[in-house]
Amino acid sequence: MRALKWILAVSGMCVALAGCGGGGGSSNTSTSSASGTSTPAAAVSTAFADPTATPVSSGSANTVPIVVSSFSNVRNFPMVSVKVCQPNSGGTGVTCSTIDNVLVDTESFGLRLFASAIPTSTLNLLTQQTQSGQTVAECASFGSGNTWGTVRAADVSLSSEVAVNVPIQVIADPSLAATIPTGVNGCLAGTNMTTPTALGANGILGIGTSPNDCGLNCENNLVAGAYYVCPSSSCTPAKVTVANQVTNPVTKFTTDNNGVIVEMAQVPDTGAATATGTLVFGIDTQSNNALSGTSATILPTTLAGDMDAVFEGRTYSKTAFFDSGSSGLYFQSTVLSKASNGFYTPAAPTGMTAVFTAANSATATVKFNVSNGVTLINSGNYAFNNLGVALFNSIDIGMPFFYGRHMYYGISGQPASSAGAGPYVAYVSS
Q1: Is-above-0.90 flag for pTM?
Q2: Which of 200, 225, 281, 367 can pair with 188 through a Cys bridge, CB separation 3.0 to 4.6 Å?
């Protein structure tokens, strides 16, 4: 679920989606059925064999279990539990609360939790960030909408890994009197998500390739749609140092801090009611997170995790990426038939290929399957490895690609792994 501040232009990206993935995002298919008229299909290839990599155990100290289920109305949303505590408490004690059903998002950066999901006893202990006595707030804009709230400090605990005193965003914080900024200096266009139901999760765990959510741009410039100071009921854009920006918590772990691996078990091509996997911290730091010797496809990326790509003869510049927070495979095809609501509807499971070009000019042929999205949604299942949705101007390889694979994300500025220094994405399919 890509935060739109990383995208130069987002208008016209979506076609009739139930939930637009504007450079990342979700297919919000809350209804029990889906329908729409289809355009004719051209000749297509047969489906590829499904990848078969299996997750490691989630019982180790550097792992947490991932679950895809019907917790929300959103298909293909991988969820984990996150513990937040009073800052500098070491991630333990009575000041902590565990927040379940937090979206694992490999294309955003930093932890964002709805205030309503944090017990008041813990929320009141999370120190609010201020500038000259004025509350610091942030607007993060995703394809599914905006998150507006305060910036607070917390200790963030994931299994036995603890990030001490890390800035997080508290969405819809009742202590923030100011309403979401609009207009030329306001948030980017989109719905203001004020409840977990609007997002489909209790928050977003952004663990992608960047160590923070804006970087030097927000430290040196007033960036509309990013950070604000709010003296009263109104806010103005503000500069925020990198150290005080909402931060990828993995970078604050004592060890296992150079990246993550999202590992999902494969699901049937007709979908499954639930799916499971493991979120692993660190790359080449322990026996359960090796990249060396795996024969992985390794693709260095931009800081935001982007690459170039060619698909169906069209070239995409720095707008192709792999995103666990996107519930479908989002791309533009003139070959596949498509329902009026944006779901691709091939008559039979169809294999598609895109050629990705990494930041070091290495290339990889990315293979994925697409089935009839209307039929999949109408099945009532929640985990799909072949759900395709129309999207212009980018190629968003979302959660369907993750099933049966180990997806590695090397974080920029952190210790190098066998793949070198981040940022990079790598994957193993067997």
Answers
A1: yes
A2: 225
Candidates 100, 418, 142; CA nearest to 259 is 418
pLDDT of residue 1: 64
64-252 belongs to CATH 2.40.70: yes
Nearest to 253 by CA among 126, 159, 151: 159
What pLDDT sits at residue 417?
98
Contacts of residue 353, defined as CB under 8 A and 6 or more positions apart, other chains included, come to: 311, 365, 366, 367, 368
| Helix ranges restricted to H, 356-398 | 373-378
Q: Tokens standing for 330?
A: 């989002």
Cα–Cα dist 60/215, whole Å: 32
Q: Per residue in 239-297, pLDDT tens?
A: 999 999 999 999 999 999 999 999 999 999 999 999 999 999 999 999 999 999 999 99
Residue in the structure block whose two tokens are 């994931």: 158
In eight-state DSSP terms, residue 190 is: S
Q: Are 41 and 335 in contact (CB under 8 A)?
A: yes
Residue 99's pLDDT is: 98
Distance, in Å, from the CA atom of 14 to the CA atom of 338, rounded to the nearest integer, reads 13
Q: Which sequence spans correspond to the domains of the chain?
A: 4-52+263-428, 64-252
Which amino acid does the sequence have at 308? D
The Cα angle at residue 260 between residues 256 and 266, in degrees rounded to 5: 135
* Per-residue pLDDT at 388: 98
Burial (Cβ within 10 Å: 0-12, 13-18, ≥19) of residue 348: exposed
What 3-state DSSP class applies to 342? coil
| Alpha-carbon gap, residue 364 to 356, rounded angstroms | 5
The pairing of strands 203-207 and 227-230 is: unpaired
Low-confidence ranges of the chain (pLDDT < 50): 4-33, 37-43
Q: Can you give the pLDDT at residue 28?
A: 34
pLDDT of residue 45: 72
Per DSSP bridges, beta strands 63-68 and 259-264 are unpaired
Q: Write out the two tokens for 42.
A: 């051209």
Question: What does the radius of gyration of the chain's CA atoms come to, in whole angstroms?
Answer: 20
Rounded CA separation 138/153 (Å): 14
What local confidence, expressed as pLDDT, does residue 34 receive? Answer: 52
Q: Give the C-alpha separation, 315 to 27, whole Å.
A: 24
User: What is the pLDDT at residue 17?
Assistant: 31
